[in-house]
Structures are given as structure tokens and as C-alpha cells.
Amino acid sequence: IYMLLAVYVERINPGEFGVSQPWNYLFKKSYWTSSTIRPSDVENNLDIVNDRSSNANHWIELNTIGKKKTPAMSIDHLNKKFGKFQAVSNLSLDFYEGEVCTLLGHNGAGKTTTTFILVGMLEPTSGQVTIQGMNNQSQIEEVRHYLGFCPQYDILYDELSVEEHLELIAKMRHMNKEFMKESIETILQLIGLTNDRNTCSKDLSGGMKRRLSIGISLINNPKVVILDEPTSGIGKNFK
Questions:
Q1: Can you list the domains of the chain with their CATH numbers?
Q2: Which residues are in the ABC transporter domain (predicted)?
């Protein structure tokens, strides 16, 4: 009973990071059933985009917005306030599969705040985010199966080796044992840490730790990978 109560309290009050559920979330149909974006929603949004893009200038790329397909990730009128400070203001973006997109801005522009909202670590003040057609607030547990995330700061265990970090995350993602070994080998080669696979993270350089954090985000081949300043401190040969 205490365990169930603890899970319930954690869902409605996750603390500083996390998306809280309403107190009656267990009695809502949306919690027990999945909802995805309908093709008609994509077509309606496409009409709006086409109208707005008719007057677009040469700074705007129009290749992908002309395709009638569901975005891998969609941000719709996103706002985030901390007290009176507006960290994110009315942000709307669509990201499509196979594309690499970058958020550029000065310090305090809201880039990290936006990424925290995308991965479900912060709740938006208003607006919504959908990933693979699912709302990242009401369906955050399902959304995280499709997400890989590398935060701005490395979150590593001092006493675990490079390979042990990758194995830990792979097991948390319930990967098949054979596929897990193959995937880890591929990632070790990709991040250039094959020869350091047995080195504890506390003995790695700053750049090597950063590469490990990137490798962790790639475990289980996620559909959407979100990286916050991934190349900070990494040598030019690995960028």
C-alpha cells in the first residue's frame, strides 16, 4: 500500500524536474489509452504554414513544410515563465524525421529551458509538445521510449566504467541482450572510446565524459535525439 501511495504522490508531485499529473489522473481515459495526431490535423496545420510561408524570405527553408507528413516532434505555442521572467515566448516549430535542427541564441535565450520541456523535465506554462504523435505531458512515459537526451552537464557515476554506463542505460531501456552488445560496440566506436571502455568515468577527461554522455543518448537507437551543447569541451577531431 505504501509503495502504491509513493508512486501516486510522485506522479502528482514529481519535484523540481518532471511533469506532474492531475490528482485524478487514474480516472481519466487519456491516461489508459494512447492518442496520436490524426492526418487531418497535419493537413490543417499545413494549410496555415503554407499561408504564412507565401511571404517568406530567403532565410526560411520551405522544403520540408510542403510535405504532408506528421512531424517527428512538434512544438505548438510554447511558453514558460519563472515568476515574472519569460524564459520561452510563443515558440512553434516542427521537426521531421531525418533532419538535424539547431536552436541558436544568446545566454538566457531559453534554449536549455526548451530542451527540458521537450524531454519532460519541466512543465510549460502554456502550449504543448508532441513527439511521435503523442503529447509529452499526458503521455510522457510512452514518449520517453522514443527519446534520447544528452543534457548540458554530464550526469555520470564516478565508479562506473564507460561500458558499464552504456550497459546500465541499455538495461533500463529493456534492450535485447544480443542487440545490446552489438549496439554498445557500435556506440563505443562512434564516440571513440573503445580503448577506454573499462576506464571509470572519474578518470576520463572532460571531452571524453562529454562523448560518453552523447553515447548514452544514442542507446536503443531512439527516434528523436535531443542534445544540449553536445560538443562543448570536445576536441575538433571528434566534433
A1: 2-32 (no CATH), 39-53+60-138 (3.40.50.300), 162-227 (no CATH)
A2: 73-239
- 24: CB partners within 8 A, 6+ apart: none
Task: List, in order, residues 6 or more apart from 147 with CB less than 8 Å away.
Answer: 119, 131, 222, 223, 224, 225, 226
pLDDT per residue as tens digits for the range 85-94: 999 999 998 9
pLDDT digits (tens, 9 = 90+) for 180-220: 999 999 999 999 999 999 999 999 999 999 999 999 999 99
pTM here is 0.71
Q: Which amino acid is at 116?
A: F
